[in-house]
């Protein structure tokens, strides 16, 4: 642990917990087989949480947030050959196996460009492909075995796994292909609008994600079945689920498909209480859900979160601007209904952030860090000492990395999601 053993003991006695944000692919080999050594590191440093990015298959840019499946596991993190029972995965498994197999046969083509009998899921046209899907089903069985075995080992050491559920998914996905009625598509199967966010502190031009928006009326007709299955799947793999872009359950920024960025768009209403209640009911315990409520968030979104007793997020890097006294991210304003982070996968490392700050923001930080020579360590201490009962530190901050360790730059497709550490990098 970075801070003193005395401080850590005090935090534990107060019911405070700490954890580490480190995606599986950031381990030296990027494989589940590396997890035991990392679990040992977490245990030795009294961390009780390990937070991941989404573990569904990444897109062509290696992004885990625009996956071709809301359910499938990323086989690229596996190295064994033992297959687990998949009987609880019947809802999504065949559709994913068909989609993955056909996609491999037609590389570079969107499902809307497939032959008509495949694009339209003609039963006769799909019949011959069902004979070819066993290898992909086996891959999912291998992922299931390796992941659940690792989860059992983590839980046995008192460590819980926090998974990440992106609220939106890629248009080129098994879910959209298999259930087009659940998404906002035109007669040709293409998105009428795509998801994004307007300009904010992450991006001056907003963000256009190219993920599809939901046809909420159709989801309601099914009593939110797709969403319930998705949450149930997540809770089979993880102990706690972080819902990325929680605001999307209140309203979503709809960007025209042909737009170059996220500036042009409009807010679309979402089901609010209805969908959140459905997910909380599946979880059975609101403590199993963390709601990511970052960005420009209206008070009604915060109120919606609190209505269901869900924890939000606070990011220390956001807490020291000109409005720091009023910022929900300032250490003095962080409350027990938040999980505190020094930073996230979407912003710079804390050292990189510090090195690019203007003098005013630096002065605000130094008021609370006692002129420390180790600014990253001081920020970690601030996070651990605030009122949030859970503090998560990105692995890059534990290693004191500068911007070279950044995981992702929003709005840029190339060069992200590639960071890995080496075991010799660990200072303990």
Using brief descriptors, characterize the structure shown.
four-stranded antiparallel β-sheet; 428 residues; eight-stranded parallel β-sheet; alpha/beta; disordered N terminus
Gist of the model:
By secondary structure, the protein is α/β, with parallel strands linked by helices. The protein has 15 helices and 12 strands. Helix content is 34%, strand content 13%.
% residues in beta strands = 5-15%
Amino-to-carboxy terminus distance: 9 Å
- Estimated radius of gyration: 22 Å
Provide the structure class: alpha/beta
Q: Helical amount among residues, as a percent range?
A: 25-40%
For the residues shown, what is the average pLDDT?
93
Residue runs with pLDDT of under 50 for 5 or more positions:
1-14
Number of helices: 15
Global geometry: globular
Oligomeric state of shown chains = single chain
Specify the biggest β-sheet. 8 strands, parallel
Adjacency order of strands in the biggest sheet: 9-6-3-2-1-12-11-10
Total strands: 12
| Secondary-structure element order, N to C | HEHEHHHHEHEEHHEEEHEHEEHHHEH
